[in-house]
Write a structure and sequence with these properties.
Blueprint (H helix, E strand, L loop, with lengths): L26 E4 L5 E8 L6 H5 L13 E7 L4 E7 L3 E3 L11 H4 E5 L2 E4 L6
Antiparallel strand pairs: 1-2, 1-5, 2-3, 3-4, 6-7
Length: about 120
């Protein structure tokens, strides 16, 4: 006999398990916008402000329950920091180095299509 179990009002469902497709040091490209970058941090789910999230046009707004990546990014005009959902990233086909002034502070070198994190930045 299957009986439904009543959950207490304070019950909070665990979030779905998510898997990051990219790791620190990977070079990626935005799926829709013309920029690429190197991953320097990963949030397992959205961890930015609600104001930032609402500023994204609704038609392009990604789901919050997926990994979000902090990138040292570049486009044809400048270098900057980007925060991008997993659904909007693809591996970079060029697999060449990224030109961002902060790279040398976080990463040692670029080999085999990815950056190697400096030892003092690893856990």
């Amino acid at each position: 006999m299957n009986k439904a179990v009543a959950l207490p009002e304070s019950y909070v469902a665990a979030p779905a398990i998510v898997h990051a497709r990219f790791g620190v040091g990977d070079v990626v490209r935005h799926r829709l916008l013309d920029f690429r970058g190197v991953v320097f941090d990963v949030d397992p789910v959205f961890a930015n402000s609600e104001e930032w999230y609402q500023a994204i046009p609704e038609a392009m707004r990604p789901a919050k329950d997926q990994p979000f990546y902090h990138l040292l990014a570049e486009n044809a005009d400048s270098s900057y920091i980007a925060y991008v959902s997993q659904q909007n990233l693809v591996g970079d086909d060029q697999a060449g180095p990224v030109s961002h002034p902060a790279i040398t502070g976080l990463f040692e070198d670029f080999r085999d299509g990815r950056y190697q994190l400096r030892r003092q930045h690893t856990h």
